[in-house]
Amino acid sequence: AQRVTQPEKLLSVFKGAPVELKCNYSYSGSPELFWYVQYSRQRLQLLLRHISRESIKGFTADLNKGETSFHLKKPFAQEEDSAMYYCALSPWGGGKLIFGQGTELSVKP
Amino acid sequence: NAGVTQTPKFQVLKTGQSMTLQCAQDMNHEYMSWYRQDPGMGLRLIHYSVGAGITDQGEVPNGYNVSRSTTEDFPLRLLSAAPSQTSVYFCASSYDSTPSYEQYFGPGTRLTVT
């Protein structure tokens, strides 16, 4: 079964601390993986995707096929990073996005 | 470009009523989809379309109907509203269905069924 699991509902850190938002997936094949972010009162938007190997706003994510994980990391959290983060999987050629439950990140001053 | 627009922003329905949630995009995207967002469950795919005249079911299609007569519009119809359909609904679009292309989301419609 295709599934994305984000084990943490809420993650609270202080400004300047490292952040790691966990994402595990279940898929028999090679999916494409994404992180989407929803800031307060804004629409859902793409943060980064595995296919691009990019770093956006200081965030990176590494695909670990052995552990079927795609954790999102940032070395030094900022208050403006506070938002809801969703990990998502897309089977190649399908166009569908399968989302995890979401993790709310709260960065305190 | 307005991007992906959705109307209305808020709606309250009584059980058994029907309504249509509107979604439009002005980016000439072929792929469009509808999701519902529920607390603790993330976003779940309701229906999607890979082009005008072509639609298919997603993970949670029961109680919803869609059609795609133009590239720009992808309305979602609730046939007989139930309290279980209380949710936030998001429309999304992308250039095509391959993961290479970013999906753009609308601002959402918050629906309450009493």
Description of the molecule:
The complex is a heterodimer of chains A (109) and B (114). In chain A, the strands form three sheets. In chain A, strands 2, 5, 6, 9, 10 and 11 form a six-stranded mixed β-sheet that branches. In chain A, strands 3-8-7 form a three-stranded antiparallel β-sheet, with no helix packed on it. A two-stranded antiparallel ribbon of chain A has the order 1-4. With 109 residues, chain A is mostly beta strands. Chain A has strands spanning 3-5, 10-14, 19-21, 24-26, 32-38, 45-49, 60-64, 69-74, 83-90, 98-99, 103-108. Chain B is mostly beta strands. Chain B is built from no helices and eleven strands. Chain B has strands spanning 4-7, 10-13, 19-25, 31-38, 42-51, 54-57, 64-66, 76-78, 87-94, 104-105, 109-113. In chain B, strands 2, 4, 5, 6, 9, 10 and 11 form a seven-stranded mixed β-sheet that branches. In chain B, strands 1-3-8-7 form a four-stranded antiparallel β-sheet, with no helix packed on it. In chain B, strand 5 and strand 6 (54-57) form a beta hairpin. Chains A and B meet through strand 6 and strand 10 of A and strand 4, strand 5 and strand 9 of B.
Task: Indicate the topology.
The complex is a heterodimer of chains A (about 110) and B (about 110).
Chain A: E1 3-5, E2 10-14, E3 19-21, E4 24-26, E5 32-38, E6 45-49, E7 60-64, E8 69-74, E9 83-90, E10 98-99, E11 103-108
Parallel strand pairs in A: 2-11
Antiparallel strand pairs in A: 1-4, 3-8, 5-6, 5-9, 7-8, 9-10, 9-11
Chain B: E1 4-7, E2 10-13, E3 19-25, E4 31-38, E5 42-51, E6 54-57, E7 64-66, E8 76-78, E9 87-94, E10 104-105, E11 109-113
Parallel strand pairs in B: 2-11
Antiparallel strand pairs in B: 1-3, 3-8, 4-5, 4-9, 5-6, 7-8, 9-10, 9-11
Outline of this structure?
Helices cover 0% and strands 49% of the residues of chain A. Chain A is mainly β.
